[in-house]
Amino acid sequence: MLDSALETLAIPIGAALCDAPAHSAPIAGVLTRAGFPSPAEDFLDDEIDLHRLLVRNPAATYLYRAQGWSMMLAGICDGDILVVDRSVQTQHGDVVVATWDGQQPVCKVLHVAADHVELHSRNPHCPNIVLPPDTDVEIFAVVGVARALRRGCHVRAD
Amino acid sequence: MFALIDGNNFYASCERVFDPSLRGRPLVVLSNNDGCAIARSAEAKALGVGMAQPIHEVPREVRRQLVVRSANFTLYGDLSARVLAILREAAPRVEPYSIDESFLDLGGMRDREAFARDLRERVHRWTGIPNCVGIGPTKVLAKAANKIAKRGAGVVDLTDTVARTTALTDYPTGDLWGVGSRTAAKLAARGIQTAAQLREAPPADILTGFGVTIARVQRELQGRACIALEEIEPDRKQIIVSRSFGQRVEDHEAVAQALATFTVRACEKLRRRGLVAGGVGIFANSDVFQPELPQHHPNRTVNLPRPTGDSRVVLATVRALLRGFLRDGIAYRKAGVMLHDLGRMERLQGDLFGGATLGDPVLMRVVDRINERYGREAAGFGATGWNEKPAWGMRQQTLSPCYTTRFKDLPAARC
Question: What is the dihedral of CA A132, A137, A140, A141, to 10 degrees?
Fold first, then answer.
């Protein structure tokens, strides 16, 4: 046997039985029927789904990982997840991700000038980017920011 | 009225969505185990890299200019599903034909070309995948229109009979849907080289000389639809999961783990389609490209006492089939699992001695749900070995990240 075969990532969860249990029924269903029907039943809502809040058009939505602090005052931290909806028309003043010249995308605030586009930082220590006129640039709207808080590593979202 | 929409150099385009540095450069995507070119960007085609060409046969000076990527089907599958979702929203009836092309029913649509242009633009803008649309009164014509659209127009409509005749006059038969290179050569021997010539040939000759498939292509070229839109994929007759190993493997336990991994994957596919299997087969191949080595190509099949969708039952069956299956001293290069006698769970009847199926569908549903929610192999089976880099793993030296399906692989945006 190979040594590598022993280095397993598995956590055993109990013996496998090939036979189905003698009977099975959803416990919640059984209990409800035994007692008085829940008066809340007709008023049940779906649970709140953060994904639905942030992702309005799943087919056109890609997630990016923010790197750096130039958008700090727009509420975007290093390590945040940026929700980018490619179907949204971008406007002057939107937070966007932009790509040009085959470069890694940049997250900034879109500034549309008369003959060119600028990408502004939201951090006094970081410069703005002024793109020369006629730059072939792809710009998409950032429609959400997601971050999980964890003890000990307070900004990394994953 | 049909439209065919497909992504240009689909796999290469998927790679470019998230790696802008690949844009404008000659990019080649390699098959599993980094063997052959399975997608080429326009720049790579211009350098003469052929479709399905083994990469080691590409001249060295060309290879030096290429950027290569290992096939990342996780990424391509996700982008393909996005494109399909957009199409399903736009058209009432859609038939996904392959990972990168779909037929749409445009029946009753007034301005087809405007619709196609709008759809093409939307798919490109929303997903980042450039694409082309062909329109025609039949599937064969829509497919031909799509091929012509690839030359630069983006959208081509062959509904108009005059435009159609012009387009088919210089359209080689070998490029038609359903006409292979052998048939094209046979047709050429009879003086039929273009689609227009095939359309005008005496139908009786075509039927007797080439059979019903080509006769149908001929009728479709004449504008009479013979091939309908298939919205619902017909139930599979069998499911095969097989892979070539990244290297030769002699260790029987490693082959067993590979087969167990393929078994689990096959059972997942089975359950996703709501099917159960009545039989299980396995096969293994030694390295056919090294004829000087000892060869062995065993296969075995067994019927199950009752059909099942339970991975554990199939795993136990595969384990039993493996007894004495492999030979010592043989280096295996490929193995696979087949599930056959597939049937719909709800159509089964139990026999006298027990239920209709083996195993525990509820437990399997739980396992599938866990994996859906927490990622593939969050819950699994010990028989697969659970190695991160198993001896039989695929060779993927230039694999791109799974940008859209794994949090740790998200593309970065500089702030």
Answer: 0
